[in-house]
Design goal:
heterodimer, A: alpha+beta, 2 domains, 6-stranded mixed barrel, 3-stranded mixed sheet, B: Rossmann fold, 8 helices, 10 strands, about 25% strand
Chain lengths: ~400, ~240
């Protein structure tokens, strides 16, 4: 019977944990946009090595996506709705005596339509900001809370790398799970500390070259755009666009200084993984249920032996073979369903415990409960037939003589 | 007593084949007639075939040849399900070791034959209670067998054997596991049943038990050796025994 309990419990619990994990994964991928293709600049490994091995000499490298790439993608790839260029710079933001690390994102005004963020207060960057290279910025709420503990952030002026910017809006990213424990991560690395600047402003104030000094070495990196997000008109265009983007970029880039992420593919992979996972879990549970069924069968066989006399008496009193079969089958099913009930209870409690102790999301699906429960009943029938048959096949005369 | 026998056994043979073509004739041509209301005892040493006879009479076994007319039906070659049905409707068993079902109460034990005839406890309740009272266990309806003495258990078995209003009561050594006093009480009870018109067939090796019967059939080596007529009527029995 333990086998039944374990099998039923594991079906429910493991499926719940699996569903929860894959749901989270899928939500995160969906937040990237299933119509989107994300292209990121990547430092080509050869260049990186050369920089490190240059033995004291200063080197400058140029790599990554360009504004031309943006234009080309928009004009040559079919099905493109919009193309969003982005510059990402690690900086420090300052308001009076409070200075914090932050992630500067230089981008265009339709950013919120491609990346999932909520406008909380004020406004996002506008087209005019871009045209006139305004020194305005939009902050994420968590950054704003820490920078402005006593003030309303709107219309305040903050300073980044010696330049002042006016805060025009507050946003909140909606794809990150809220309850995630942040132990071990330094503050500046969470997604929540973003400062959004108009792309043109960003280019004008920060330039495109990043200079790093290590000892006597001075290395410089020139990157036009760190990321391009391509929004396709429809799911169907995403499939065809991926190879086309790759081809186009490879023709215009000497090295592979970019990487392409297709959330739709990731989503499909995640779903395929989930299905695999479910199959593996299902197999484990099935094996354990079979073991449980065999256990029950053995218990019932022993039971039949013990009650041989009783079976003989029942037959003598008018019981037919099928009456005996029914009796023992019912008893077996009661046993297996009893185990199933216990398994359901444990199987529902376990994911709840897991969620409360580890913070991992778990989703208890009603169909897994129904499935596990009905399987426990079926196991009772299947593994009860043999003992029930054995009982019914006893010769009444021999049975009455037994014991 | 009716004129036609309710039990008619003609030329019954029961042959066992023990591997390698060795045949054992447990019953070798038996003819018996039993009429309604008779009280018959079957006696014989071991190996005489009386146990085989008992099993055949009780429809627990089939003869290898011959006919067995029970209440107008030829049950000799019936299939398993039909035989089970006949047992349930026509025969009431009383065993030497009571054979009550341990997990059931007195009332539920009495009801078992009716259960296999498709009746529910609600339908059977009144009759079961009535029979329990008849055998003197009306106060112990919810007791389990392990709470009863041997004599009380046998009374429950007797009530059970009556519940389906059988054609005959078949008793196998009913006092075998009881002390002499309790045994007498049980035999008195069986006498009462016979007085009420019930046909009794009783298998025993005890002469004192056989004394109660109208007729004793002595068996030997698989056939009827001789028959003894003990007495004709219940009044005669009263003269033989001074009881209570």
């Amino acid at each position: 019977m333990l086998g039944i309990i374990f099998g039923v419990c594991s079906v429910i619990a493991m499926l719940a944990i699996g569903e929860g994990a894959s749901y989270e994964a899928q939500e995160r991928i969906k937040a990237l946009g299933s119509n989107n293709i994300i292209v990121r600049s990547v430092k080509p490994p050869d260049e990186a090595r050369e920089q490190n091995n240059s033995g004291g000499r200063s080197r400058g490298i140029r790599y990554g996506l360009t504004y031309d790439d943006t234009a080309r993608i928009y004009s040559t790839i079919p099905g493109v709705e919009r193309v969003l260029p982005m510059r990402l710079i690690r900086e420090r933001i300052r308001f009076f005596e409070i200075e914090l690390p932050c992630q500067v994102i230089g981008t265009l005004s339709f950013y919120p339509e491609i990346v999932s963020i909520d406008l909380v207060k004020g406004r996002f960057l506008s087209h005019m900001d871009e045209v006139y290279k305004q020194n305005v910025c939009v902050l994420t709420t968590s950054l704003a809370q820490r920078l402005f503990p006593y003030h309303d952030p709107l219309e305040q002026t903050i300073k980044i790398a010696g330049v002042y910017y006016r805060v025009v809006g507050l946003v909140r990213e909606i794809n990150t799970p809220n309850e995630r424990p942040q132990s071990g991560e330094s503050e500046g690395e969470t997604l929540e500390n973003n400062v959004y600047l108009p792309l043109a402003t960003c280019k004008a104030r920060f330039g495109e070259t990043l200079i790093k000094r290590t000892g006597n070495q001075v290395n410089s990196e020139t990157v036009q755009l760190h990321e391009i997000r391509v929004q396709m008109k429809d799911h169907s265009f995403v499939e065809s666009a991926d190879p086309q983007v790759r081809t186009m970029l490879s023709r215009f880039h000497k090295d592979v200084d970019y990487e392409i992420t297709v959330p739709l593919q990731l989503l499909r992979q995640a779903e395929a993984t989930k299905r695999m996972f479910n199959i593996v879990l299902g197999s484990i549970a099935a094996i354990s249920l079979i073991v449980g069924g065999i256990g029950i069968m053995n218990i019932m066989l022993a039971n039949v032996t013990e009650r041989t006399r009783e079976i003989g008496v029942r037959r003598a009193l008018g019981g037919k073979k099928r009456d005996i079969i029914t009796q023992f089958l019912v008893e077996t099913v009661v046993l297996s369903v009893g185990g199933g009930l216990v398994g359901v209870v444990v199987g529902v409690i376990t994911p709840i415990l897991v969620t409360s102790t580890t913070g991992m999301n778990t989703i208890i699906t009603w169909w897994s409960v129904a499935l596990a429960f009905s399987i426990s009943g079926a196991i009772g029938v299947v593994f009860g037939i043999y003992p029930a048959n054995a009982a019914a096949s006893l010769d009444p005369i021999e049975a009455l003589r037994h014991e | 007593m009716a004129n036609d026998p309710i039990i008619r056994i003609e030329g019954i043979e029961r042959k066992y084949v023990m591997g390698d073509d060795i045949e054992v004739m447990a019953l070798d041509g038996v003819d018996i007639d039993i009429h309604q209301g008779e009280y018959v005892a079957i006696m014989g040493p071991s190996g005489s075939g009386k146990s085989t006879m008992l099993n055949l009479l009780g429809c627990l076994d089939r003869p290898t040849s011959g006919s067995y007319w029970l209440g107008g039906e030829d049950v000799a070659q019936m299939d398993d399900d039909s035989l089970s049905d006949v047992r349930g409707r026509r025969i009431g068993f009383i065993f030497q070791s009571y054979n009550l079902i341990a997990q059931l109460t007195v009332l539920e034990n009495i009801q078992v034959p009716l259960f296999y005839q498709g009746k529910s406890m609600t339908e059977s309740y009144d009759r079961c209670v009535e029979l329990a009272q008849l055998v003197g266990l009306g106060e112990r309806l919810t007791h389990r067998p392990n709470q009863l003495s041997g004599g009380q258990q046998q009374r429950v078995a007797i009530a059970r054997s009556l519940v389906n209003d059988p054609l005959m009561i078949l008793a196998d050594e009913p006092t075998g596991n009881l002390d002499s006093k309790t045994g007498l009480e049980v035999l008195d009870l069986i006498d009462d049943l016979n007085d009420d018109g019930k046909t009794i067939v009783l298998v025993t090796h005890d002469n004192y038990v056989a004394e109660r019967a109208h007729r004793v059939i002595h068996m030997k080596d698989g056939h009827v050796d001789r028959e003894e007529i003990k007495r004709r009527t219940g009044e005669e029995r009263q003269k033989v025994y001074k009881r209570r």
